[in-house]
Specification:
The structure holds two protein chains of two kinds.
Chain A (H helix, E strand, L loop, with lengths): L1 H29 L2 H30 L6 H6 L6 H6 L5 H22 L5 H25 L23 H30 L4 H32 L10 H26 L3 H24 L12 H25 L14 H33 L3 E3 L1 H18 L13 H7 L1 H17 L5 H24 L7 H10 L2 H26 L1 E7 L4 E4 L2 E10 L6 E11 L2 E6 L2 E5 L4 E5 L1 E5 L2 E12 L5 E10 L2 H19 L10 H6 L8
Antiparallel strand pairs in A: 2-11, 3-4, 4-5, 5-6, 5-7, 7-8, 9-10, 10-11
Chain B lengths: L7 H31 E5 L1 H7 L7 E7 L5 E2 L4 E7 L4 E7 L11 E8 L5 E6 L10 H9 L19
Parallel strand pairs in B: 1-2, 5-7
Antiparallel strand pairs in B: 2-4, 2-6, 3-4, 4-5, 6-7
The chains are: A alpha+beta, B alpha+beta.
């Protein structure tokens, strides 16, 4: 019964979304407050209905109702409760429902909470969000309905893919979708700007928090995914430039560009058309990601829930939404008032370079991701584009952006003092070069790229400190004045500093780990050992360890360094009978910021007919920074969001009364 | 500067182009340069034998893992045979096989032929989902008549239909 209520509410939400579009459009045409309100109410109601549908599906999963096809295919009665709940979004149908939940939820927030937004513009935002809701809800209801019943329910479900039964991946989709779909609001604001023909500081002030929120959620989502790939797949890597990873990375890159160009539009009224273009682009790339991941057109190591036939429908939705958005852009953008002028050496100028590089990087990633499709369509030859392509194109472009990054915040708006900014960065430049040379000297001098990368990471981190020191007049003013200025720094400034420092920390970790990680693998019998870097890894014992829905062999591994014990690790090899699938549970030994990473492989017959297990051990130096950095970036986004000036309902006047000490007056 | 356009707007546009052009051409140059080496073509065993590939060239070799062909050695290396309808290739791989590697299932490996004619794999494509079959393998199997379709299709959920 509850499942039928869910199915009913899902259909109702589709109708309400259609009503939301109709009422808001009528309201906009007639300029009628009643219709505006009705459209907003419909948006709220549509969200409520999807929420009920979502709860109903969750109920079916929690109670293991195998008469529902989706539950039978993705759940199992012996599964731990967390993964029963996470199973809701572990399948194609369920994850589309989560997508719709986020889409209508964000729409409802704008419709019901956004006060102070001009009524006409708000109605267009609500109508646009409703149209996206209609597209995706119609897809969910007609092509991907999670509430379909089975005529002959099985006694037991087929269970969720064991690789997905993992805490990091249980929370990965909600964050990722929050990010993907958060950009839909930005998309709708862009549509509204084009329809109303105005892009001004007030508009940018609305777009910024939304893009910031979406970007932060996406950052957390991607980081969780990378961390999951790192320790659940057991390959020792965290990023493979796989199409599915790229699909989430491209909206992130465009979202990052959007964050920065929205600042220019808000503060200086410049680049209005470009900001609108990026706002349209960010959600277009989100939809492209949804299509690439689900359609299976590209061979991916992370292929889940693939269905080519429904992929075509997703491509149609993508074409409709993006086509309408960019068509409107082509028609209306030339009418947007051109923005303010600025000199090439200025904060605007630095942000333009940031945007150019990020966009160019996105295009190269897009090219590398889609090249197999293009080539196959043209010549019929199957091929794949490997990691070297992405490393060779993406890294130099990002290096260029990193070079400019610390300079930007030190320049003033409109016309900056480039030489002065560079002079103030001598400490950052000096330490960056020193670290680069040190890495070359201490480590193998063949790793030039790693040395450059580490130098850039230090350049970013020290650059952040230089920028804060400049803002608080460190060394130029009295201690009391410095303290007063430090307390007066807006949260937006702290957020930016955190995010930039996080990027530097990530760069340090990523470059160091990639260049200097050590791998060792060998079939070990009990009490045999291998050496990885400075560590001795001994397989002490292998015992049986069974969980609720799996049976496992658990290795007891003793890790020592120079004879001193470091840790006792327990990597596992699990077999899930429900899926007849084996997974490896990696054990991580945290050594400061380094990881000793241990995988227990399959049982083999070793020497003298003794049983042996293939043990793989990695020493991943500074690996923790790779995941810490992006989390700092997301935290920076959250801190910025808490800034009074960016609060959704904050009236404009309040924003102007807050004193903003600018870096270089 | 007499050669600069008169209007402020045009001058600004020129400046944008002057800044954007090097960055975009750098991106384009890098992309074309990097694409050459990073691309690896897909071959089924029959196609690989017909193509007379030079030793050392990185390719992807995919097909079905022949039943009973997997031999695991104590030093950690694995030998198995990848076959399609018309031909088969012996593959040597050093390392741990992905958890979903099984005899009789589709697989894609990446590596190169040695001078002796043996294929040495550096990567074995791991899948996360036992229902998932790499597209290239599906296509190659269909072309050679080896495709048997979705036998275990129970529900409408998430099944690959090539």
């Amino acid at each position: 019964m509850i499942v039928e209520i869910g199915a009913f509410c899902l259909i109702l939400s589709l109708i309400l979304s259609a009503a939301q579009v109709g009422l808001s459009v009528i309201g906009r045409v007639r300029r009628s407050v009643v219709f505006y309100g009705a459209g907003e109410g419909a948006a709220g109601a549509a969200f409520l209905m999807v929420l009920i549908a979502f709860a109903a599906l969750m109920y079916a999963f929690v109670t293991s109702d195998f008469s529902v096809a989706n539950v039978a295919a993705n759940s199992h009665s012996a599964k731990p409760m967390l993964y029963k709940v996470a199973g809701v979004w572990g399948s194609h149908e369920g994850s589309m429902l989560l997508w719709c939940l986020a889409l209508t939820g964000f729409g409802a927030i704008v419709a019901l909470m956004a006060r102070g937004l001009p009524a006409a513009m708000k109605s267009v935002v609500v109508a646009s969000q409703g149209s996206l809701g209609v597209l995706f809800l119609a897809y969910t209801v007609f092509a991907s309905n999670p509430f379909v019943r089975l005529l002959q329910p099985p006694v037991e479900g087929r269970s969720l893919n064991p690789l997905l039964q993992d805490p990091a991946l249980a929370f990965h989709p909600p964050f990722l979708y929050g990010g993907y779909v958060g950009f839909s609001i930005v998309f709708s604001f862009a549509i509204a700007a084009l329809v109303e023909g105005r892009v001004d500081a007030a508009w940018a002030r609305w777009v910024r928090p939304w893009s910031l929120a979406a970007w932060s959620l996406l950052t957390v989502g991607i980081t969780l995914g990378a961390f999951w790939a790192y320790y659940e797949l057991g390959w020792g890597g965290w990023w493979f430039w796989d199409p599915v990873e790229n699909a989430s990375f491209m909206p992130w890159l465009i979202g990052t560009a959007l964050l920065h160009s929205a600042v220019v539009t808000e503060k200086r009224g410049a680049l209005p058309g470009w900001t609108v273009f990026l706002a349209l682009g960010s959600f277009t790339f989100s939809m492209l990601g949804a299509f690439l991941v689900r359609s299976g057109v590209l061979t991916s190591v992370h292929a889940f829930a693939v269905d080519p036939e429904r992929g075509i429908l997703l491509l149609t939705i993508l074409g409709l939404a993006a086509g309408a958005g960019f068509g409107l852009f082509a028609w209306r953008a030339p009418k947007l008032a051109p923005g303010g002028l600025f000199a090439p050496i200025s904060r605007e100028g630095a942000l333009v370079i940031n945007n150019l590089v990020l966009s160019a990087a996105t295009v190269t990633v897009l090219l590398g991701t889609l090249y197999p499709l293009i080539k196959e369509a043209l010549t019929g030859q199957s091929l794949s584009v490997g990691t070297p392509y992405f490393n060779l194109t993406f890294a130099p472009l990002m290096g260029l952006a990193f070079l400019v990054l610390p300079v930007g915040p030190l320049l003033s708006w409109k016309r900056g003092d480039g030489l002065g900014a560079l002079q103030r960065l001598w400490a950052a430049a000096g330490s960056a070069v020193a670290v680069g040379l040190l890495v070359l000297w201490v480590q193998k001098p063949t790793h030039v790229a790693a040395a450059v990368g580490m130098g850039l990471g230090v350049w970013l981190i020290v650059g952040v400190f230089v920028e804060i020191a400049e803002r608080i007049h460190l060394g130029r003013a009295s201690a009391a004045e410095v303290r007063r200025r430090l307390g007066g720094l807006p949260r937006g400034a702290w957020g930016m500093s955190l995010a930039h420092a996080g990027l530097g920390i990530f760069t340090l970790g990523a470059c160091f780990e990639t260049a200097y990680k050590i791998e060792a693998a060998q079939a070990l019998s009990i009490n045999q050992a291998i050496t990885v870097g400075a560590y001795q890894v001994q397989l002490s014992d292998v015992v049986a360890a069974n969980g609720p829905n799996y049976i496992a062999e658990r290795g007891l591994v003793t890790v020592t360094k120079n004879g001193k014990p470091v840790c006792q690790a327990k990597p596992e090899r699990r077999f899930y009978p429900a899926n007849s699938q084996t997974t490896s549970e990696v054990a991580l030994c945290l050594e400061g910021l380094d990881d000793v990473y241990l995988v227990l492989g399959e049982r083999r017959v070793g020497s003298e007919a003794q049983p042996a297990w293939l043990v793989r051990a990695y020493w991943n130096p500074l690996a923790r920074l790779i995941f810490l950095g992006p989390l700092l970036m997301a935290l920076g986004g959250a801190v910025s969001l808490s800034d009074r000036r960016l609060r959704f309902a904050a009236p404009r006047r309040a924003a102007e009364t807050v004193a903003v000490p600018v870096a270089a007056e | 500067m007499g050669w600069m356009p008169r209007s402020k707007k045009a001058r600004r546009r020129l400046l944008v182009v002057a800044v954007a052009a090097p960055i975009l051409s750098l991106a384009a140059a890098l992309a074309f340069f990097a694409m050459g080496d990073a691309v690896s073509f897909f071959y089924s065993p029959a196609q690989a034998q017909a193509a007379q590939l030079a030793p050392g060239k990185t390719i992807q070799l995919g097909g079905l893992v022949a039943k009973g062909s997997v031999a695991k050695h104590p030093d950690g290396s694995v030998e198995f045979v990848i076959m399609d309808h018309a031909a088969s290739e012996k593959v040597v791989y050093q390392g741990d096989l992905p958890d979903l590697f099984r005899e009789g299932q589709g697989v894609v490996t990446k590596g190169s032929f040695e001078a002796s004619g043996q294929f040495r794999a550096t990567e074995v494509l791991a899948k996360h989902d036992e229902k998932y079959m790499p597209r290239e393998v599906t296509k190659a199997l269909k072309a050679s008549g080896e495709w048997r379709g979705d036998k275990d299709k129970v529900t409408p959920a998430g099944t690959t239909k090539g």
